[in-house]
Amino acid sequence: MSTEDSCPSKANPAIGRLPRPASMNTNVDVSTLVDTDGGMIDRSIYTDRGIYGQEMRRVFARSWLFLAHESQFKKPGDFFTTFMGEDPVIVTMDKTKTIRAYLNSCRHRGVRLCRADAGATKMFTCTYHGWSFDLAGALQSVPNEQAYPEDFDRKDWSLIDVPSLATYKGLIFGNWDPNAEPLEESLGDMRYYMDAMLDRDPEGTEVMGGVMKWELEGNWKLAAEQFATDWYHVNMSHASALMVMSPTGRGPKAEIAATPGRQFVAPNGHGAGFPTHPKSRFDAGPVHEYYDYPALRERLGDAAVEGPMTTGHATVFPNFSYLPVNGSIRVWHPKGPDKIEVWAWILVDKSMPDEVKDAQRLYNLRTFGPSGIFEADDGENWSEVQAISHGFVTNSVPLNFQMGIGSERNDGVYPGQTSELYSDAAGRSFYKHWAGLMNTPAWHEQGKQSQQPGQ
User: What's the CATH fold of domain 27-166?
Assistant: First the structure.
């Protein structure tokens, strides 16, 4: 299986062919809303409709976004539909077994071309007027084509492709920027922390079952930032779940609840946190018993096995997160400033016996996902933050992100800069990178004076 990550295609000339109204290009200078040096964030970044629209233009239109897992595509014609920001996208395997991605919008009247979540096909045919496109995105059939002008050329009306695609150890990412920084460079040191989940098995990983989807009230950044930085909430927010899961029913022992650990802080917004207590292992018994820890130490290194391999949390900026302990990978799809659509997959090692995979699946469902005992706690917190943030006075009171200021350092054990486990360091870095993107014209705005911040 391959992608065209080494040679991104040029941006489709159809994009930007017609001038946009100036009102659609007005941007907000967010530099006064994000004070990462002082550790304060203005709540309007979660509620303001104009800021949300700017995110679609300057964050989601220029960042590497998770699309799907390679194991979802086994033969030509297999497809999966998803979103990049609020743009619907078809991901498919063409006849050469190359993974491709297109805007899921017919070039005729713009209706969603493919309405199925996933499946297999030889052609994508619009149910509105019957325009048909092949797996390479080329327009192949136009009913009543003779009625169009003589200069009508099907080649001019191919699907809008996602120009930059790349994979990292089974994960497929896309970027609307035709000259995007290579994916692995964008990930940087985050690759080490991802490998602790993705590279345990020489055969790689695969997704198990389908995609779980549910909606939450809240802003997408609340979820993405928490998964990047926030171990602080665990003992309080998840107290009841921890009691249920502990052998005594009284919660974890004090030395485990106050576990030592580290938090990875990336300059481009990625983040990961993980305890380093020797008992931080896989909670699903069959999974823990399956792993050969000496072999994993040989493969990944002692530090990875003692830290980010199991009980931790992480976010790849902007909206892809994962939990190694239960094999959960997920995307926080923005649906307006006040709503998130969560899509989650169960990830397992390919070499796992079926009974071990099933144990991981059941543990995943019990802890995270729409019915998970931990997931419900998180969703309630985010919706509560969002619900009151529209108040006039409430919205004017900044939020505190000061925990661990100045603690970031190269610790000599883990790659990149790290902070303490109980820290807001990765959160501050997340918002600093977000603000930098928000205040910088993107690839589609170059040379347009009206696109400057604040104008």
Answer: Rieske Iron-sulfur Protein (2.102.10)
